[in-house]
Amino acid sequence: MELKNFIKSLSIMHLFLVAGLSIFTIWVIFQINSFNTSTTGENLYLFVVPIFALLGYFGSQLIFKKMISKIKLPERLDKKLKKYQSALHLKYVLIEVPAFVGLYVYYNSGNALPLVISICLLAYLFVQKPNKGNIIKSIPLTQNEITEIQNT
């Protein structure tokens, strides 16, 4: 596995996830054209979306760290990177799914709360862009592997 292509493919995947969610967010906003802020008990989903978003946010961090902790120092670099990639994919899914659910609820209810939560999750997903520094910081690497990653 060539490191340059690995990082490039992770970045492209991240870009498409952020772009897709952004486009869907903009589309939903233009479809509704207004919003309300009523939190009366008429729509149960208004209370489920924040809980789902919190579970996605904290769950993405917890599961990512748990999956990364299973990477052992003596493993080959390509095996470490594949495990890192799997953990990163799952992290992105756990952030993106609650954002889509929030947009769906906003589309059906017109309530601003799910929209705001979805935009916050989108912003969080945006700052999770993969880069060499995050790889070095997240994975247990030998000094030779760190140097190899930094030089790509």
How are the SSEs placed, and which strands pair?
Blueprint: H1 3-32, H2 45-69, H3 77-109, H4 112-126, H5 132-138, H6 143-150
Helix pairs in contact: 1-3, 1-4, 2-3, 2-4, 3-4
Radius of gyration: 18 Å
Shape: elongated
**Total strand count, please?**
0
Biggest pleated-sheet summary: none
Output the helix-strand order. HHHHHH
What structural category arises from helix and sheet content?
mainly alpha
Count, helices = 6
Structural write-up:
There is one protein chain. The protein is mainly alpha-helical. It has a domain at 52-140. It is 78% helix and 0% strand. The protein has six helices and no strands. It has helices spanning 3-32, 45-69, 77-109, 112-126, 132-138, 143-150. The longest helix has 33 residues, at 77-109. It is elongated, with a radius of gyration of 18 Å. The relative contact order is 0.19.
Quick overview:
With 152 residues, the protein is mainly α.
Keywords:
78% helix; 6 helices; mainly alpha; 152 residues
